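subagent[fold] <- orchestrator: predict structure for attached chain, return tokens only, no commentary.
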Amino acid sequence: MPTITLAEALAQFDLIRRRAEHKRRFIESSLLREGRYRDPLAREGGTAAVLGQEWRSLDALLERQVLLRRLIQAANEQATLTIGDVTRSVADWLVWKREVPARRKGFLDRLRRRIAAARRAALSAAGPREVVVHLDEKALAEEAEKLEQTLGQLAGQVALKNATVTVEVPPDETWMTGREARLEEAVLRGAAPAAAQPPPGRPWSDSPELCRLARDPAQKIAAIKLYRELTGAGLMHAKQAVEEFAASPVPVLLRPDLEFPWSESEELRALAGDPAKKIQAIVKYRQLTGVSLPEAKQAVEAFAQRRR
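subagent[fold] -> orchestrator:
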């Protein structure tokens, strides 16, 4: 059984928490779609099946989180720390840190402020007034200083314990679905993850001009006309096909042997040829083609390399 330090276990705990959040966002973003759109995860068995897998994966991650927390807690209950003349288990010190210092410090600050306010009021009074303090002010100041010192020593000793105390953690990959990297990338982009899609059927895969026109609202009529010329479809069918292509929320991958979109966009060529505008070029490429971020990045970099 693998042995890891408490620091590594805590890092795993944080990683699991992030992965669980990514999966929650994916489930939320994929929960609904309009019936007129194709299933963006059809190649992976359908969105319903994928969400079922991610749901089970999320449950497994949460169980893993509970296991790690329990192992860390058990190790902290066994390990001890001595600060000054006080010895406690690490677990008890952590409880002390959570419950005591902030409240104690706030209480001490209030006492000192009240004493200072009373003395200012006495000085401003018409006649001399004596203020009697029933606690040792020096002891109050020393306790506040000792509190800060204890917190500093505790932080150092806990970090040392985390780096040296180990726990045995059973391996578990039941939570893995193979989509984790895609989900993380999508969350970093602030968007739902795009599923890999097959190339669209004809005429889209054979006509970059049709794709360009359909994605330009100002060229909708021209796109419908070209669609009918290429397919022989009726007006209503062509109109629906163009609108669905333009409104589709899923990426549409075009044939790699076509020169689209480079042949169609002088702006894209200019952006991709300028290293300082690489990000703008990638954004423009995705707008024109609908491909994923990694694919757009690869295409722009390849174009720039050919231009050198």
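orchestrator: received. Logging for downstream: Residues 47-78 form the longest helix (32 residues). The first strand starts at residue 3 and ends at 5.
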